[in-house]
């Protein structure tokens, strides 16, 4: 068996270095060999120029392909894996194209594992753990509220209230995307994130107020997270977190993005992204910060019967940025799990089994500067 790691970008290196120090051979693929060599050449014995045909020819049955490429390139790589009877791992959301490979993956006896980064990934683990924990006291008709907020933010706040650790174009495109969630028992659909910004008081060792907003379709995760249809769902929101003051600092960005349409709008969006990368990217060695808050609460007959929250706060260090560690280390954990045969053939997201969750969260806790499960009912 061989691990084929494709892409050595900003969020890839800590997890890749972990696998390079393991016992399974690793081939590192990157479009620019020199960049890969600069990042991991001290450990990697085999670095190759990436193109899909070369990778296809190198694959053998039982190998594992890790894609750190843009998400739209994952389905094509996964199809190659199915054809070659190799496994596949990525940190990205399961797209409809990826989900459609379920039967083919089962027939080929391979696992296509996705959503094993930070968000999606670690947030899934925490959600599954909370739901399993709550089930011990749950009753039919309980009014349940769930929120999950994650974001990369500057360790040292700046007037722009943000810095880019990945493509600004992706961030700007996300601002043009609608979202669907549940608030106060009703479906909440908004066309733009800034139409639904709320404050969030985080139970950190030093309490801190953030700004949060829903993204994508939160409701798509109600069933995967194992929510019981006999519970009354009051809130269900998966969203993004930003520093307090972000919405004010970005007000002019929102106004311009709102008016961009068609091909000309796409061109302008790329221009904005390039300018933001020049002005607001992290400098070499500059520490970043990642925060994640996943909370599940339930009421019965007007009284709160459950209210617990996973809290994570991580900062960049000499092992890499917080974002890179929290994205790529879980990816490496998924690769190790695939090699052990922990995933059955088919298309998968982050594991939901209690034993796997416990082990992965221990590893995540070693990355975080602070990670705790807060019981709000026991707080004074």
UniProtKB/TrEMBL annotation:
Keyword Repressor attributed: no
* Record-level GO cellular component terms: cytoplasm
Alphabetical list of InterPro entries matching this protein: AASS, NAD(P)-bd_dom_sf, Sacchrp_dh-like_C, Sacchrp_dh_NADP-bd
Residue stretches making up the Saccharopine dehydrogenase NADP binding domain:
10-113
Which superkingdom is the protein from? Bacteria
Cite a single GO BP annotation.
Answer: lysine biosynthetic process via aminoadipic acid
* Pfam families, per the entry: Sacchrp_dh_C, Sacchrp_dh_NADP
Keyword list (alphabetical) reads: Oxidoreductase
Domain Saccharopine dehydrogenase-like C-terminal as annotated: residue spans: 117-356
Q: Key word Cytoplasm present in the record?
A: no
As one GO molecular function, the record gives: saccharopine dehydrogenase activity
SUPFAM superfamilies of this UniProt entry? Glyceraldehyde-3-phosphate dehydrogenase-like, C-terminal domain, NAD(P)-binding Rossmann-fold domains
Q: What name appears for this protein in its UniProt entry?
A: Saccharopine dehydrogenase (NADP+, L-glutamate forming)
Its ancestry begins with: Bacteria, Pseudomonadati, Pseudomonadota, Alphaproteobacteria, Rhodobacterales
